[in-house]
Predict the structure.
Amino acid sequence: MTRFEQREQALFLIFESMFSGNDYSEGVALYEESNGKLGEYAKYLYDGVSGVTEELDGIISQHSNGWKISRLPKVNVAILRLAIYEILHVDDVPDSVAINEAVELTKKYSGREDASFVNGILGSVYRSKN
């Protein structure tokens, strides 16, 4: 299974948890019951994002220039949480890869206009990190 596919799995879990309130183990069990085996990297990302959601949301709010996080499409918030987590907490993934994969996920699940927005926020996060 590719890293992109595992990011996609993690995205589904992050997105689902925004509505269900399931904790990590419940989310993983439900996913695997419905969809089959979950990749180890997907589990790692989901667990990591779950542990720092408030931090990630604060970063999204800080870089979204006047947009309240509650007004953003939920799928975009889930993608941003995933990508920002990778940028800030995963050392073996280049920041440019995390950003590009997030933009591709946004194009697939949200829309082209949203992809530009997500890219802009992630670019801002990247610049503030360095």
Q: What stands out?
A: Residues 26 and 93 are 27 Å apart (CA to CA). The longest helix spans residues 3-20.
